[in-house]
């Protein structure tokens, strides 16, 4: 299978975003459906739903996004475009990164940036400016390809709730 160039989606953020979750690059299913984390085996919606105590995985996509916005959670990817043969992050080549610094500068209420997986963290951390008041967290990937299991993923993902606390 030949590598094709893929491009990510526009950011899903609002000016009052407190938590920004950054993936690497949407997989084939997500690109085909034009939806973040569209593959049914990806645990993203289940994990984030548990953070905000809402069954996001059971909702239509538009309601998932509305729920994230209401919870002050933003989504984006660290890679603007890249070549990739399959949906695996290990196959990403010739990646062009997004301007994360510009996005972060436009989010005055931002408290935490969370990288969904190692590839997102490796590329994204290089794009960030020094952030004094924003916590940066590396999470295990929500992808089914990360086989550590939901319980171990959740143990780390539950840290995201701290960014959304009103205190």
Write the topology of this structure:
Layout: E1 4-7, E2 19-23, H1 28-33, H2 44-52, H3 61-71, E3 73-77, E4 79-84, E5 93-97, H4 100-105, E6 112-116, H5 118-127, E7 135-139, H6 150-157, H7 161-164
Parallel strand pairs: 2-3, 2-6, 6-7
Antiparallel strand pairs: 1-4, 4-5
Helix pairs in contact: 2-6
Task: Please provide a written account of the structure.
The structure is a single chain. The protein has 167 residues and is of the alpha/beta class. The chain is 32% helix and 21% strand. The protein is built from seven helices and seven strands, in the order ββαααβββαβαβαα. It has helices at 28-33, 44-52, 61-71, 100-105, 118-127, 150-157, 161-164, and strands spanning 4-7, 19-23, 73-77, 79-84, 93-97, 112-116, 135-139. The strands form two sheets. It has a four-stranded parallel β-sheet. Strands 1-4-5 form a three-stranded antiparallel β-sheet, covered by helices on one side. β4 and β5 form a beta hairpin. α2 (44-52) crosses α6. The model has no long low-confidence stretch (mean pLDDT 89).
Give a quick rundown of the structure.
The chain is an alpha/beta fold and 167 residues long. 32% of the residues lie in helices and 21% in strands.
